[in-house]
Amino acid sequence: MIAPMDWTTIDACRTSTELPRPVEIRGWIRTRRDSKGGFSFLEVNDGTSLGNLQVVAPAELENYAEEIQKLTAGCSVVVKGELVESPAKGQATELHANSVRVIGWCDGETYPLQKKRHSFEKLREWSHLRARTNTLGAVMRVRNRISQSIHRFFDDEGFNYLHTPIITASDCEGAGEMFRVTTLNLEKLAGSNRPFDTKQDFFQKPTHLTVSGQLEAETYATALSRVYTFGPTFRAENSNTSRHLAEFWMVEPEAAFYDLHDNMQLAERFLKRVFSDCLSHCGEDMEFFNERIEKGKIDQLKSVIEKPFEHMTYTDAVERLLACDEKFEYPVEWGTDLQAEHERYLTSVVGGPVILTDYPSSIKPFYMRVSDDGKTVAAMDVLVPGVGEIIGGSQREERLDVLQRRMAEGGLDESEYWWYVDLRRYGTVPHAGFGLGLERAVQYVTGMANIRDVIPFPRTPGNAEF
Ligand code: 4AD
Ligand code: MG
């Protein structure tokens, strides 16, 4: 049910079959073209769909010469008139205006989004306006669809939506790539010889922006059985790549009594649901990506939805990489992390998503469950063509003694994670979960090459504008 409004969305106008009928629309001018026949064509968009609605404004309108003929890209308008079947090709309907009211003029001298095409890089300089372009508008609608789909999927699967803290004192991933949170006056401290005293700080201990809500989600999974957290995540990794952001959104389900196999099944059902929701709800936007951004995207997603995901152990993956003829920049060796180029190669030979499992324990965080071989952990990464790793997850170490040993080996202070360790003391259970990077999912679905173009306001090293 859509709440009744005083006006009609452009999306509804474009697909309406109830014609002719009076409507009012509200939106922004994309283009104006004056015809010799005594009227102007206005292309209006309100962000409810990729396509515009064509408004035909006749010269008889009282503000025709004064205002309508001065309309430029970016002006906001309210148009009332008769929605009719369009005789023109490429559009089902058009609006014959009885009145065009200008709400806000747009300075054509300085407005950056003129007809001319701009590179995505250039558009990032106008991140406050770029959603008014076809591509960014479509990306943001798909991003919204994926977010809604995430909530619906987990609700359907009986997962409780959990809010985990953004400020935390633990480093879940153990990579040390954290943003410090402090209220201490750093300029003043730097100028004095006094040592940095965290006891004086707001939380009286070192705190950071979270790199993952997993540890907190695990605690709730041992009470509510199935939970998921979905929120902003921060990593101070100084990597300027097309798949890394300093602030991104991650969805992390965590389920009690799940093992690695259950976890892989969940991830596969989840991704397939998200992809199929995008195809069924964002048809026009997906057609656009299919034609303009990555040819064949729709068929690719359809085939991913139909086929079971491939599974491969890390050890098998390394063997395949060593045996292939491809020249890699980074050498492959058992025990080292796979690089983006290796991941891309693996997805290309498989021709679709692949779930890599059983990574060496030495390259994975302390919380992953140690396998019987003693060398690997019950980890799983989902890799997709083009993007590479989209999901990282694992079965968790539920055995108290093994967890304590792993923490000691990793140099973690057990006393700082006492509450996490407690879960293994009080009714421990096998459990598992994963994290999906929302932006990487949007990148994969849309085919957008750079992660900076699938989040409204990207944060990357040296860039926190807007
Ligand atoms: O593999 P990661 O680091 O896993 C975790 O954080 C686990 N605690 C998740 C869990 O088991 N609950 O990150 C998960 C995903 C990656 O697969 C990737 O999609 C995304 O988060 N990601 C990033 N996305 C954008 N920019 C970055 N800097 C990212 N780092 C990770
Ligand atoms: Mg990972």
Description:
The protein is α+β, with helices and mostly antiparallel strands. It has two domains: 95 residues, OB fold (Dihydrolipoamide Acetyltransferase, E2P); 322 residues, 2-Layer Sandwich (BirA Bifunctional Protein, domain 2), CATH 3.30.930. 30% of the residues lie in helices and 24% in strands. It is built from 13 helices and 16 strands. The strands form three sheets. It has an eight-stranded mixed β-sheet with strand order 6-10-11-16-15-14-13-12, with helices on both faces. Strands 1-2-3-5-4 form a five-stranded mixed barrel. β14 and β15 form a beta hairpin. α3 crosses α6. The longest helix is centred in the first third of the chain and has 23 residues. The two termini are 34 Å apart. The mean pLDDT is 96. 4-amino-1,4-dioxobutan-2-aminium adenosine-5'-monophosphate (4AD) binds next to β11, β15, β16 and α13.
How is this structure best summarized?
Homodimer. By secondary structure, this protein is an alpha+beta fold.
